[in-house]
Amino acid sequence: MKILVCISNVPDTTTKITFTDNNTQFNTNGVQFILNPYDEIALARAIELTEGNGSVTVINVGEANTEPTIRKALAIGATDAVRINALPHDAWFVAKQIAEYAKQGGFDLILTGRESIDYNGAKVAGMVGELLDIPSVSVIKKLDVSGDSATVEREIEGGKEILTIPFPFIAGTAEGVAEPKIPNMRGIMSARTKPLQVIEPVAVTNNVEVTAYETPAPRGQVKLVKADETASLVDLLHTEAKVI
Amino acid sequence: MPVLVYTENAGGKFKKSIFEVVSYARAIADAQNTSLTAISIGDVSADELATLGKYGADKVLNVSNAKLKSFINQAYASVVAEAAKSEDADIVVLSNSFSGRGLAPRIGVKLDAGVADGAVSLPELSGGKFSIKKTAFSGKAFATVELTSAKKVIALTPNSYKVVDKGTSAKVEDFTVDVKESDFKAMVKEIVQSTDKVSLPDAEIVVSGGRGLKGPENWGMVEELANLLGGATACSKPVSDAGWRPHSEHVGQTGIAVSPNLYIAIGISGAIQHLAGISRSKVIVVINKDPEAPFFKVADYGIVGDAFEVVPKLIEAVKAYKATA
Lengths: 244, 325
Fold this sequence. Notes:
The complex is a heterodimer.
Chain A lengths: L1 E5 L2 E3 L7 E2 L4 E2 L6 E3 L1 H14 L4 E7 L5 H10 L3 E5 L6 H15 L3 E5 L10 H9 L3 E11 L2 E8 L2 E8 L2 E5 L11 H7 L4 E4 L8 E7 L8 E2 L5 H11 L4
Parallel strand pairs in A: 1-6, 1-8, 6-7, 7-13, 8-12, 9-12
Antiparallel strand pairs in A: 2-5, 3-4, 9-10, 10-11
Chain B lengths: L2 E4 L9 H16 L4 E6 L4 H9 L4 E5 L9 H15 L3 E5 L2 H14 L2 E6 L4 E3 L2 E8 L4 E7 L4 E5 L14 E4 L12 E7 L11 E5 L10 H10 L2 E4 L1 H5 L20 E5 L5 H7 L4 E6 L12 E4 L2 H18 L1
Parallel strand pairs in B: 1-2, 1-4, 2-3, 3-10, 4-9, 5-9, 12-13, 12-14, 14-15, 15-16
Antiparallel strand pairs in B: 6-7, 7-8
């Protein structure tokens, strides 16, 4: 079984988000970048599914500074890696690069995280699916393989759906699919020598441009209510906040 | 060129978030001086379809086809894209729901359209530019994106736009599309709906618990408060990691981002990752025995106290309020 796992290099979850250049650029100064948490889940499941029988290629669209994240994926257990040498402009740009690479790869399964924690678009899986004309399914909580198809559990509002999908297809994974794996010393050592191929990007016409950023407006001072005056809180929520 | 809005249904009924999407799409159509066509796929009654007119749809396209009974990304995207072409629509609007997030990128590729996901505002139109504000960095910020393509797809975040009852009506027409067989490779085998619970992404009130509740056996009061208020239950990441609550209730940067009118946090300290997922709540209430908990810095109302004493009293107070309301 041959699996392609798409990984993003994102700011650490503890990052305080700020902007520069008149709020037009994300301020990367002092920011620690990590492997996108949802992609870690996808990677962990891919490794479990291919143990002793197959390969896991990780693909990242990024410039040379994303290589520590790619090496971490290799240390966790990916077989090899591909870096498309470009700044990831947006989901459309990233999806085009991944689809272009995947066309030649003969992958049974392509996994992404359900979304990246920076732009939260959750678009790459669907776009790659459409570009390759294969099924896509997002926010999956469970992924089991049997023969040449898989059974997945998909989250829906107020419940879940169970689907069967023949290979090849692409899926966006969430918590529940697998527990993220921590690289061990052997993995870290072997990651240094695993193949990491660098490919130049294909040309893409952009159709979305970020023109400005802003942070949420600060909230006012908290209004404290005494612990034995819960009726006052209910009254405030009704008369002042008008939310009940 | 009309605006097209995709109106997903749950068991043949439209949810409030769909009326928000139709109202939002109506406002866009008005700004573009054009009409609004809604498309519905699945088994929805004529009366239910007609309700879309109240919120501004001029016309409703009804796609009722046994093969399209279950939601399949590929097939649904084909239908919506065909409808957009047939209507000559250059803007497609849908909900940023689980299904909407699966559909929007596929429709975007089919129509060669830029996609604005997680939209929280109406488009700004100035100097020929079409810009929309969306959430970014898991709720820690907003990004304004300009869609530069001729066709555009917008996925609206639930609870981001008010429902506007226009009191108008729509004509309902059947719409037929030949969907290719290869669009049905994925097959839905089973749907497990927890009908007794309010869906977290759509909820207007969310009652959420953290490690301060000490164990899953203490969630009864969280559920009771949520039920009384007609809200959904949620939890922090450590709680879902510990298996006290299902992952589907985990709210935060690596869980669900919510934007309810009221978010009640019980026994949650307010780590930056949790605050990211709830920052778009209109009103935040925090109950925590630690007066230094960071959550109090972003809360609108707070009670410093032991959850096991405060929450039962709050339940009684809500019951008393409801008895007199």
